[in-house]
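Before relying on records like the one below, remember that each one covers exactly one chain. Contacts with other chains, cofactors or solvent are not represented anywhere in the record.
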Amino acid sequence: MNTRLVAFLGALALVSPLSAQMIAQGRNLTWSTNTGQTGSLRITLVNGPYFEADQTNEKNRGAGIVKLVGAVTDNGRKVVLINAGQWKEVWEGSLSDHEINGTLVAGSSRFAFKVVEPSAMNAPMNPFREGRVMRWNSGAGQNGTMRVVFSSGSRFIMEQKNDRNPAAGLTRFEGEIIDGTVTLVNKQWRETWTGTFVHGKVIGKINGRTEFSIFE
């Protein structure tokens, strides 16, 4: 985490390390604003009252994954998020049960925002049911289809076709979904696809570098 941001957030946070329950490492959340923007927010790191999150925007998928840093303040009653990158945003809101409501400030503009724990992610069901066919694409310009050929509990197996490389045939992926986090392992090409399942889509990165999405 950037040291200047840590210093700024440290001035906001109280001595108490109390953290909001929904701000837990690995937790998948969804966010929305009063302008119709919406997307996912995955908590990637928690250290006392401080945390980091990966944000995606369903209305601006070209932005990819944006890193946010934050702090839980006022004894767990308030949350502050900072996007110090291209957008220079400050999100400040109040926590009530499993929901954060507040104001997003970007320059001279102000918007209302909400962060919630989506009920779909809290459900134990595995959306990768046997026989389901989905589309996929990657930041490297590859695309094709993925078909679920086996599903049991949180685990499943998919067969992938690459429209850009039909000679590759079917590629096997072993997958698992836990609390909205999807992990796909391709042993043939030594790839690990890790992403977040939100609103019927998976958005993430391949080997932590190349972005991908899986959707219907």
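The two ends are 35 Å apart (CA to CA).
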